[in-house]
Amino acid sequence: MNYDRGMTESSLKHKTTVSLFWSFLDKFGQQLLNFVSMLVLMNIIAPDAYGMIGSLALFTAFSTILIDSGFGRVLINRKEVSRSDYSAVFYFNVGLSVLIYLILFFASPLIANLFNTPALVPIARVLFLMLIFNAFGLIQQTLFTKDADFKTLTRVNISALLMADVVAIVLALLGMGVWALVAQLTLYALLRTIFLWVRSPWRPIRGFAFSRLKKYFDLGYKLLLSNTIATTMNNIYPSLIALFHPMSQVAYFNQAKKYQEIPFLTLSNTFRSVAMLILSLVNEQSDRLQRVVRKLIKSIAFLSFPIAFLMILIAEPTFHLFFREKWMASVPYFQVLTLGGMLLPFTFIFNELFIAKERAALFLGIEGVKAVLLVLLIMLLFPKGIMGLAVSWVIYMAITLLLSVLLSGKVIHYSLVHFVRDTFPYLFIALISAGAAYWATRRLEGDLLLILANALLVGVLYIALCKLLKLEMTEEIDNWFRKKRI
Description:
Blueprint: H1 9-41, H2 47-55, H3 57-68, H4 71-77, H5 83-114, H6 120-127, H7 129-135, H8 138-146, H9 150-173, H10 178-199, H11 214-244, H12 247-281, H13 286-323, H14 331-341, H15 344-356, H16 360-381, H17 386-412, H18 416-441, H19 447-468, H20 472-485
Helix pairs in contact: 1-9, 1-12, 2-11, 2-12, 3-5, 3-11, 4-8, 4-11, 5-6, 5-7, 7-10, 9-10, 11-12, 11-16, 12-13, 12-14, 12-15, 13-14, 13-15, 13-18, 13-19, 14-17, 15-17, 16-17, 18-19
């Protein structure tokens, strides 16, 4: 599917809306299934099992980035890509995945010794198979994304995840413990790749020409280094905690982080999927690019801030209602990490902006500075314990966003003043709504009643105040509904 770079504003808006709908449905569906499966599994499986999986997160995430090697994102960004180019990237990715898996297979005893957990050896060797499974489906995923076929991706992702979740729950009920979690992750990767191959007509051609990769290498290796740094920093906490604390503490922190990420990763990946496509289409039109970025930022602010403050309000009754006393130690981490999580979707948009403009060196520079910053924050706050690490991540996210906004001013003249003007009204109204809800419900008893009352009050107050102040996003929603009724 090819798109004219001179498309009208209305056609661009229509394509953005359709893409957003299916991308949101995909990401929301995945996170909903993750929530439900965790809801069941966390009440069956012991925290130590989750701790073991969490301790391996850094190795899995790091290896996944290496396998993609940065070429996947470059293929989306470039307008003219031949079948030979796709095939070269495919063979390179698969070959690299096998090599990395073999290294990790033989390094598994060392990883287990590092965390003083011998049982990790077979777990790691099976879990790391997902790296090979994912590598086989990267090109099909790239092609569906480039064609804005998020509908097919939604069907593939949801089907694979649903099947994997059902198998994991059955295995957990049969007393398989940590192996239920291993099966969930590896089976999802395998089924997803199988479904991608079934749904996509693309097949690699025979042969491998390394020369086909050269034209993507300059941007690709910078994205690879940038993503490697970012992924390492974002996944370092569980492994770091596992070095000095029991696996149960790894689980409390890691599950708190996973749960607070559910809405924000849904927003991030939804808007990122669309941004990587739309921004690439208008990347040579600076004024238009700035308008698109500002609309994306306002949309995220409209959703992210009220969700975050509501999550903090209802954290304790939610964990108590769904997970009981067994997981209540996660609540303080969840509440603190949520403050950083609500900033995550903004950083995704700025990253896509830098990539769309092919300013990979700038992107790489940001990640380098962020890595140094996070190491310093960890060194400073690690003596404060696991909560100190949670606080370090929030500070890291805030400074990361500030750096991204400042540097975007050099790319599309979108300054810190613009960002504050676009986001502060939604932040302020969300804070006021949450404060009023807390005051109104502070004497209520009962977990479910507290959750429902806070959700209703925050939602109603937030929308009412946005409408009262005639903020852009509520007017956009009203216009959309009016058009639907016509």
